[in-house]
User: What shape does this take?
Amino acid sequence: MINTIQAHVIGASRYKMDNGVQGAKISIMQAASADNENAIGNQVSIMTAPYDIFDQLHATAPHMPCAMELDIELRTSSAAAGGKTVLHVIAARKPNATGSQPQPATHSDKK
Assistant: This one.
């Protein structure tokens, strides 16, 4: 199942190994939950992504850190690989790129 989230992207990197394995990682930052007494401030999370996601982020790079809209899916590795579940980004774009229209400015007669 693919979900779309709004995230504060702080950076990205990609890798390509000699054995053909390649991919990318996207770093996001979010405020710690007020309900969690063991965390304060901001927390950083890393998401996996395909190698070419890095190219999608190049246009946004001068503005990072910035808000982005990410299409993500949960992926679980095999039991032999530890059975870890990760968030995997399959698309990244500026928030208004999904067709949502920006809200019109409100005008006031106050002087």
In short: The chain has one helix and five strands. Strands lie at 2-16, 22-31, 42-49, 66-76, 85-93.
